[in-house]
Amino acid sequence: MSRDFESKEIIKLLDKLIGCTEAVGETNADEKIEQNLMTLIDVTNWCLDGIYQSSETMGRPEYSMNKIGFRAKCALLDYKNWLDEVTG
Length: 88
Known about the structure:
Blueprint (H helix, E strand, L loop, with lengths): L6 H12 L8 H29 L7 H25 L1
């Protein structure tokens, strides 16, 4: 089974659809940037929920389900470690 879009294509599309999320210090621009950030947070929550659901198959006797669950659990742990690093 081939994927319809590669990760880089999806990232470029999301970047265009969501827009900038880095504050610039100008009220009118930052209002739009805050809306973009809220959209990014919603998309991130959706992604994390999907990864978590996949992680629930780790430990299943079916090889493919366990493999997918393991990959998802590793990704979640990588995110946790990254958050621990950047938030001190």
